Amino acid sequence: MVACTKIYLALGSNLGDRINYIIQAIDALSSFLKLKKVSTVYKNPPWGITSQPEFLNCVAEFETTLPPFELLKALKELEKSLGRIERERWGPREIDIDILLYGETVVNHEELKIPHPYLNSRDFFLIPLVEISEDLYHPVSKKPLKSYIDKNSLCEPFACIYQRSSLRFV
Questions:
Q1: Nearest residue to 10 (alpha-carbon basis) of 170, 108, 132, 109
Q2: Options 17, 18, 89, 96, the catalytic residue
Q3: Which of 17, 18, 27, 84 is catalytic?
Q4: Minimal CB count within 10 Å: which of 13, 39, 87, 149?
Q5: From CA 32, how far away is CA 47, in angstroms rounded?
């Protein structure tokens, strides 16, 4: 029997029907990963290239038996199937799915870095992540993730797409 690993994925969109892209992505991910929790969806200004529409972001907790590189491949294929068009780095996107944490695993490869290299500096990762699992810590620094949250964050709650008690989207 293959053991399941708890993973945390960030989902974001700033083009088109943003909330629908996120819901479609979580629905599709649930077909090959075991969904455990989904955070509130937050609205936040763009990071990197600031002259683009605001993002909607959330974090979902899943369990998987896929190894990290197979998971990454599946996520990239899913983004493409949902309509993501590759553009400049940190530019606008229909859907973006990032691996934030993969159990306690640390990967430092040019194609994949786990934990996400910007995990401790992006509130749009940290706030929803801590919302669904407040005792998480950074697997490298060993510091609680909540200690990295900027008290003056510009992330604002936007929508709840998930009923925690029934695992249904609303």
A1: 132
A2: 96
A3: 84
A4: 87
A5: 30
